[in-house]
Design brief:
Strand order of the largest sheet: 3-4-2-1-5-6
Order of helices and strands: HEHHEHEHEHHEEH
Helix content: 40-55%
Shape: globular
Distance between the termini: 38 Å
Bound molecules: farnesyl diphosphate
Structural class: alpha/beta
Mean pLDDT: 95
Low-confidence stretches: none
Number of helices: 8
Radius of gyration: 19 Å
Strand content: 5-15%
Largest sheet: 6 strands, parallel
Number of strands: 6
């Protein structure tokens, strides 16, 4: 069962051990100005495990727990869209053993969590070149998409065999295909048309991108969609990413002035 924080909002604020407790952070948060779409690069699992003298798989397994915490809080705060980078088009370069572990964890996660996700009205929307996933993963991913397809709560985009460049290439191919069939005129192609051919079609661009693990890169994630996204970078490794950390990211987001290339945007 998903744990709830909001029920006690404000009750224990200021009385707990640290000023950074979940309740204190939650009390400071303006629930009316949360990011609509949150994107996360779940990085640092491998290093986190290696530093502990453990195999990388240990870090990935801890990364799944972090993902669970984050999904739980996003659901509770009624975040409308959450996109997580679970496996990139470049991750196939890793040793087969690690690729297999990641795929197994994905399957396990989906089968274990699907009831809870559905009970919380979450719609799972896998994005990426899904047809190239190993059969077991593909079956689990399609089943989760099918089962949660009618849900109307948070859209949970899970990026799998995903690359921002590959996404743009498939969008351009689809657009050129329509042009060559006479279904679209070249002069009608604009940003909206392109966005409508991305995996995230009909979803707003991310308001906030979170990247843990101390690396300052976009890593081929949502290249088009991140144009005006606020970035929140932290040295915390993904397996250590807590609800407190997510609340801090949201609080920091609420202090930003977003101008979208213009002047003050309120
Ligand atoms: C990056 O850490 C993380 C990944 C490539 C995979 C992320 C996957 C999970 C959190 C678990 C599986 C996902 C789901 C949806 C169940 P890294 O291995 O690159 O870490 P490093 O940079 O420290 O080596």
């Amino acid at each position: 069962m998903f744990k709830r924080l909001l029920a006690n909002r404000g009750k224990n604020a200021g009385h707990s051990a640290g000023a950074d407790s979940e309740q204190d952070l939650l009390a400071k948060l303006d629930l009316t100005r949360l990011p609509v779409h949150v994107a996360i690069i779940m990085d640092g699992n491998g290093r986190w495990a290696t530093w502990r003298g453990m195999p990388r798989s240990f870090g990935h397994r801890a990364g799944v727990k972090a993902l669970r915490r984050v999904v739980e809080l996003c659901v509770e705060l009624q975040i409308k869209h959450l996109t997580v980078y679970a496996f990139s088009t470049e991750n196939w370069k890793r040793p087969l053993e690690e690729v297999n572990i990641l795929m197994d964890l994905l399957v396990e996660y989906l089968y274990k969590e699907i009831d809870e996700l559905c009970a919380n009205n979450v719609k799972i929307n896998p994005i990426g070149i899904l047809a190239e996933l190993p059969e077991k993963a593909r079956t689990a991913v399609y089943a989760a998409r099918e089962r949660s397809g009618a849900n109307t709560g948070m859209v949970f985009n899970v990026a799998l065999n995903y690359g921002g460049r590959a996404e743009l290439v498939q969008a351009i191919r689809a657009i050129v295909g329509k042009v060559s069939e006479g279904r679209l005129r070249v002069e009608d192609i604009d940003g909206e048309v392109l966005a409508a051919h991305l995996y995230t079609a009909a979803q707003p661009d991310p308001d906030l991108l979170i990247r843990p693990s101390g690396d300052y890169r976009v890593s081929n994630f949502l290249l088009w969609q991140l144009a005006y996204t606020e970035l929140w970078l932290t040295d915390t490794m993904w397996p250590d990413f807590s609800k407190q950390e997510l609340l801090k990211a949201f609080l920091d987001f609420q202090s930003r002035e977003r101008r979208f290339g213009g002047l003050v945007h309120k």
